[in-house]
Amino acid sequence: MHPINFTMILALATTVTCANFPFEAEVLTDIDIAAFPDIAFGDISSPSISDHDKRPCRAHPSTPDWPTLADWHRINDSLRGVLLKPAPAASACYADCDAEREKCEWLRTEAGQTRFWLNDPINMFTEWTVGNSCGFPRRGGDGEERECRQGGYPVYVVNATTVRHVQIAMNFARRRNLRLVIKNTGHDFVGKSAGFGALSIWTHHLKSFEFVPQYTVGQGDERYTGMAARVGAGLESWEMYVHMEKHNMTLVVPNGYSVGAFGGWTAGGGHSNLASLYGLGSDQVLSFQVVTADGRFVTAELGKNEDLFWASRGGGPVMIGTYGVITSAIIKAYPPIPVTLSSLNFTSANSPDLETFWAAVNTYFHYSSHLCDLGGTTYNYITNINGFYTFTNDFELPSMTAQHTLDALQPLFDTINDMGIPVVNPQPTTSLRSSSGSNGVGMASSSGLWFASRLFPRANWDDEELYVDTMGAVREIVEAGYTFHGIHMTPTEAIAGWPGADSGVNPAFRKTVMYADVWMGDVTAGAPAEEVLRNHARFNGYMDRIRNVTRVGGGAYVNEADVLEPDWQRGFWGKKYKRSLMIKRQRDPWGLFWAPTTVGSEKWTVRTKDEPPTQDGPLCRVER
């Protein structure tokens, strides 16, 4: 990754405004625009907006409207040298020099134990989403070698460290008909940060933080008074833990330590291990700083841009392409909370038979709803490897003592032991929520997994016949060879409180007692299209069984989703979709922000050579 070797020029003026952080005080000025009109603001009030640029596809390097090299020089000058043109990491494996071959071997064997993949501007969590672009070649050259090209990876990247950088990139993309994508860590399952021929805004370095001991917003019953924090959108979960420890307080953050804490995670809802106690990530937000599609930098909160504030909390991944780009947020903070941990594990090998194994799983699932009522969250995995079944589970119970946890779990362990499966209720451990045990190093590289998700309604637990049918669907998908990951949580509207209860988040979150994602793997980038689609059709058939049994009150989670989710508008947003779509059309009449399975994305499609839904092709309007 190297910056383009352009000559840098100094901006003639910088306007300092009152903003959350110093990086938000540096904004685009009229002087900047006069020097380069291609970075001018848009006007959503223009009466001719509906007739704005109707070219069928976004520009890409093979089209005549793609910016010239001189244009890219000028945009880099305006950005003061932060424009990158990165090659895919695996390109080192296609070079002829010893140094690059050594780098290739390091990427294969050691990079996953460093920050390399997280700090790469174009790496994707799910490699298959970029198509057969530039994967690692087979060792020894056995068979047909894979190729290396830019493909589904963005062509240019703006390494944004100020609001001004975001505004310039956004305005240039809008005025020059470019595909625009947004990336923080790339922790996404369907390729929302990928894009053939795209210009990418990389928000990874917006990592400012400020603890606010006392913050008040609202009036009367609709009011929040308490601790808060201002958080830059580039902060990862593990970094938030560092700040929690420093300031002796608790924040609701993602479970995955490398997940960006308050960008796409919040905008899609955002589950965590405090969901049953304090609600979703989106429920924590009191204010957003956002750059909207016209390039303007605005505050979205109660009383200011309330439509944007409503939609940005659960109404679709903002940072990765729906209504705008979040640069920072003000969120609720809480006193330090001890979390008591325990576990439950068993296999088909230490069960009398397979029926008993599944009976124990069913007992655990049913009992976990009680733990949610205590403010707890549980995390389980069920796997099937050639007929050998494993069940593993972690309990996380905030504000409970070790003895209270032992007592709360003992009836569950007693029941499973009575079934003939020997399990021991272990001595729980208690730690402060402010300690993550991670320094952000050693995160995994790209994977080839294909995910689908489901929010299971509590009503399925309350109806005995429906519960049996629900667990039958779970059993079927595991027996078919797929991995099931369940999280028991209850982020109800009552728990969400104010202002979280009134937001664009999927209504299914408010009725759920378990969120689950299921995955098939390993989807190899470059695999024949017919093979990928055949495998997905089988996978989707089993997911349909789960969807059908949870159709009333259920839904799916847009941040951990199947890119081919059927009826995704209803699945991800339910009755909220209509309002979210209206806000999307008002805020982004150009369709500047686009990512698969986001609000309004049905108006565009990626044209690929094969049918699998990768991002390795031009983004074009859907013909009606």
TrEMBL record:
Residues 1-18 form the signal peptide. One of its GO terms (molecular function) is FAD binding. Coiled coil: none annotated. Residues 604-624 are annotated as: Disordered. The keyword Signal applies. It comes from the Eukaryota. Residues 150-336 form the FAD-binding PCMH-type domain. Keywords: Oxidoreductase, Signal. Belongs to the oxygen-dependent FAD-linked oxidoreductase family. This is FAD-binding PCMH-type domain-containing protein. The lineage of its organism: Eukaryota, Fungi, Dikarya, Ascomycota, Pezizomycotina.
